[in-house]
Write a structure and sequence with these properties.
The chain has about 450 residues and is of the alpha/beta class. The protein is built from eleven helices and 15 strands. The strands form three sheets. It has a six-stranded mixed β-sheet, sandwiched between helices.
Length: about 450
């Protein structure tokens, strides 16, 4: 499982800027305005080969008793509860405030690893301006500049040190021959009911109330000689729709479950159709390169007109998952469950498919002969050979000249040819283009 870092501090100390710096993104809105961030924001980050999750929080007022600040404080407390390491961000230029003392008192009582970071420290002499922050009682003060990227590497080295993490995610303990299957979807879509039907017992609490499952529950299972690890995840919904604090705790567990799974079964509620949140979850699965199978649950509860609407919405809103098999099921009535397993096994095998370099190169050259890439100005991309660059998901690396001019449409054409040749159903396929260096580029007449 990926470790979790939570960024905590009073408003306008640069938490969102630091979040964007760590995740190498612009996902968090940044402006010189106090209290801009109100909800929690999750992002993926990587340092020295170790992946982790970063949580950006709003301005923290531990003693707030009413209004929006009370809700922001509740979310920050949950971020702290989820975190393995807390990064307490203060303003090096603004100095220590009474609110900083309140936050420090709260964090000291938790007993969790906590790092005190003085942001906005660019252009200031180290040492003298940091002395006052030692009165917060949280140990060493690390000066950084999130806006300019100064001190970030030292910050991450210190933050990840107390976790005693393995050198890489590949060192995590895995059981050979066991397929990790995560069942994901919005709340109350029938995930726990489906797993109970598979197990033949009421192993998980299933209740007609969104948010019944709070954590990612792992259950061993064996079918026809194949061992599985079934992971029932808590439902993901839009952050703005989550009010109960304990349900907030489920979000990071669900993301971790999806990331650690070999195959994800994405459940969709036929009575509600495909929503924005379904597309969000599907996008997260695709972003992490997980093999996926689609299942539309509660199919027996809708009429013919609604069924047609659901099918059309899947074709349009989940078009980026057209490589995945779709099944129409009813977990409660045990209808359509048998074919699910064949698709799950097929997706797992496709994600771990081995492709030889000669076969890939032959397919590439045949594809180019069938349809050449579009010329860009004076140049036409020349695709010379291909080899496999990884599995789960499969990665195909193509070498040649002027490949920066290959269009997205042509990449999709190549992806279709490779998928058809290797029967890659149920898994994302990534194509990487590497252009050979021109040996005469630096030479002049």
């Amino acid at each position: 499982m990926k470790p979790v870092l939570a960024l905590v501090g009073r408003p306008n100390v640069g938490k969102s800027t630091l979040f964007n710096r760590l995740t190498k993104s612009r996902d968090a809105i940044v402006a010189d305005y106090s209290g801009l961030t109100r909800d929690r924001h999750y992002g993926n980050a990587k340092h020295s080969g170790q992946e982790f999750i970063v949580i950006d929080t709003g301005g923290f007022e531990p003693d707030a008793t009413s209004g929006i600040y009370k809700e922001m404080a509740k979310q920050t407390r949950q971020a702290v509860a989820e975190a393995d390491v807390i990064v307490f961000v203060v303003d090096a230029r603004g100095g220590v405030s009474a609110q900083d003392h309140d936050i420090a008192n709260y964090l000291r009582r938790l007993g969790k690893p906590c790092l005190l970071v003085a942001n906005k420290a660019e252009g200031m002499l180290e040492g003298a301006h940091l002395v006052e922050f030692y009165e917060l009682g949280l140990g060493e003060v690390l000066p950084v500049s999130a806006a300019h990227g100064q001190g970030i590497r030292s910050l991450l080295d210190q933050a990840l040190k107390p976790l005693n993490l393995p050198d890489s995610p590949d060192d995590e303990e895995t059981v050979p021959g066991v397929i990790k299957l995560a069942v994901a979807g919005r709340p109350n879509v029938g995930k726990s009911t489906l797993i109970n039907v598979w197990l033949g017992e009421e192993r998980l609490v299933a209740f007609d109330l969104p948010g019944t499952t709070r954590d990612a529950i792992s259950v061993p299972f064996e079918r026809e000689g194949q061992k599985f690890e079934l992971i029932d995840t808590a439902g993901l919904r839009r952050r703005g729709k989550v009010f109960e604090a304990i349900e907030k705790f489920s979000v990071v567990k669900t993301l971790q479950a999806i990331e650690s799974a070999n195959v994800v079964l994405l459940l969709i509620d036929a009575t509600q159709g495909v929503t924005d949140q379904d597309a969000h979850i599907a996008g997260y699965i695709l972003e992490n390169g997980r093999a996926v199978v689609l299942a539309v649950n509660k199919w027996d509860a809708v009429d013919e007109y609604q069924r047609e609407l659901v099918k059309r919405s899947i074709e349009t809103r989940l078009a980026f998952l057209k490589f995945a098999n779709m099944h129409l099921i009813s977990a409660q009535k045990r209808q359509g469950l048998g074919p699910l397993w064949a698709s799950i096994i097929q997706a797992y095998k496709a994600a771990n498919c081995k492709m030889s370099t000669p076969v890939l190169t032959r397919l590439l050259l045949e594809s180019v002969q069938f349809q050449s890439p579009k010329r860009s100005g004076m140049y036409r991309p020349k695709l010379r050979y291909a080899h496999q660059g990884g599995m789960n998901p499969p990665i195909i690396v193509i070498h040649g000249n002027s490949l920066e001019h290959v269009t997205d449409a042509y990449k999709r054409f190549l992806e279709g040819r490779f998928r058809q040749a290797f029967d890659l159903v149920g898994t994302p396929l990534r194509i990487e283009l590497k252009t050979s260096a021109n040996p005469f580029a630096d030479k002049t007449d």
